[in-house]
Sequence to fold (816 residues):
Amino acid sequence: MKTSLILRYIFLAVFNAGVFYAIPLSIAFESWFLLVLIIINTILINVVYLTDRFKPMKWILPGMLFMISFVVFPAIYNSYVSFTNWSTGHILNKTQAIQVLEDRTYTPEDQKGVEFDIYIFQDQNLDFYFFADLDEDNLYFGKAVFDEDISEAIIATHEPSLKINGEIVAPEGFYQLSGKEQIANAETLQEMSLVINKNTRAKLYKISVFGSSTGRLSSTKQLYTYDESKDALIDGSNDAVCPSDGDNFVCQGKEIDPGWRIFVGLENYEKLFSSQRIRGPLNLVTKWTFQFALLTVFFSFFVGLLLSLVLNKEKLKFQRVYRSLFILPYAIPAFVSVLVWKGLLNPDFGVINSWLGPLYELLDIEPIKWLKTKESARAAVLLVNTWLGFPYMFLITTGALQSIPKELIEAAKVDGATGIQSFWRITFPLLMVSISPLLIGSFAFNFNNFTLIFLLSGGGPPVIGSEVAVGWTDILISFTYKLAISGGRGNLFGLASSVTIIVFGIVLLISALSFRYTKRLERIYGNI
Amino acid sequence: MAISRFIKWFKEFGWRHLVGLVFVTFAIYPILFVLTNSFADFPNLANSKLIPSGFTFEHYELLSGDPLVPYFTWLFNTYKVAFVAGIFNVFLGTLAAFAFSRLQFKGRRASLLTLVIVQMFPSFLAFVAIYLLFFQISDVVPIAGLGTHFGLILVYLGGSIGFNSWLIKGFMDTISPSLDEAAKVDGATEYQIFSRIIVPLSRPILVVIFVITFIGIYSDFILAAIFLKDVNLWTVAVGINTVFVDDFNADWGVIAASSVIAATPIAVLFIFFQKQITGGLTAGSVKG
Fold:
């Protein structure tokens, strides 16, 4: 057998072993979409590499799997999420939510409990250990913990060897505290307890200077029990029935957190279009997204074209120097230049306001609070994006201008056209033929220019009085980010996904337009 | 005489230089400003100016000394992630491109068209779903879950592989098929044609694709920001913007120094490959 074949089988064996490990886990976590993804990948890999029926796929599949898994699949998953109530408080599925709720405990009102002797020890690290002498068969020894550490506490063990013939024997390496020492440490000791089992703890109740101190049991009880037949929680502390309202249990009119994830159909979309709370901000953001992308393309195209017209002149010196200097803003990673611009624009310390200082004085106006007011933030975003974008426009328009045949312009001149006429009638239309697909591309890029908006203005300044987190320079994608990740009002994954679907729709529209306008698809199809 | 000659020169060339200079200033002022400020010995943004009175390396030294701001760890992380993702991207893209360019099979056109259509949607658009998907992957395969470089690399691989295969395929189409037919006659296998003929001849485009992918990943902010939570795993883009924006005024010198370090290698790379990156074939794939 060839080495390559052996290697292939080893790879497949390892991969499939991994799958057999992952499938039960994703079932246990009820991650159904992930399960589907794993199964699709597994089937494709095994079919393609175990049979010889799909030979070309052996070359294509590795790359394709990544594209399917992390581009196509998330897009589908995104649509699914947009039909759910997935958000903070509704992250878990119902089984998990019930599990969390059933783990909650409460301490019953009457804590009479049994009393028993309790002895305190210290180890070399000066940690406290309790020994609770409940009866012959229940001699519990273990490390004492504070309430906040209860969940990680080690449960005490039955240690009959510590009590021999009624005498307490300190275990090796431990020191037994005397009554006086217990009093000296009383404050700490009374805060601590020994975990005997999930619901029962032993606490120090009374310290005795002579003889043994007294301990008491403190028991906690399960707060909620799920009743499947009623689909309700029973509150153990008052026997109230808490019915489910679909995605939460409701106890005496109050929703109990956490709730769970459910399919809500078009509810998120309805919110987007009819709930005043969401519709207002969404309208605002959508409008600005279009304005921002259009104006950005316009300004940077305008500056780029102007420069290439001015500098594209025979016998003009330093053309190459200009070109290499104009390239610089384009060459620097945007996240760096945006940060630098943020410094320059800083209203209190930035160099832009210190430049404009004399102008402010002359006109007797307040210095502009860059990025702090709606207008100044929008102007700043456009200014910086023009800076980022004009070099590209300069390069492509220069290239396009140079490819326009000179004879055309000269012929127009012969026919008596002025320079302006020949520009608008000949140069510009020809330029647009080759540039317009790139302009559409630039529009699409800036439509989702998250880096610029998020890093320069953070979408801000915030729109005062809005109920969802939104700012005056937020574009759709940064608005989505705030809804889903960082809005300060929890993670509204479901709602954010439905906004993403709108963005998908718009991108699709732009692309369709661009394909139609430029016949690019036909050209591509012809080429393959 | 001299004046009239100057006026003539100005009318023809001079004003063009004037416009050119205005925009050169616009283009490079921020860059020069941050470059000089990174060496300047004034303490904060408030009294920063273009030409500092004294020079110091203090800001650069501060960058490497603070354990709470592991700047060079971020830098290393970024290079690591971008390098690994870039290499695999080119590798897997080359494999696919070879099949699309050299093998005849049913569904070839349809799959190429699918690639083009899928790549119209930037992969970060569905970041909510990517976040939730990897949240679940964290439970099942923790080493590839949320907060890991491995998971982030997987996402970056998916993001541009279609586009890259398409570009590489375009280049491979220009390699004469008579070469591989001759090899076939001599008894070469498909794999030998791939590794001995097509890949060596495609090297120029593979380098360019690697550079473009590398720069793209290096500059990514959104996916790294939602993916990486641990300070020590951050990339430069996430770190620089999370740590240094708290006190812009006082941190200005360090911000400048960190910006220079983060930007210089990429800018050099970009200028070196400028023609290919901005050329018709790949225009707009990094930024635009």
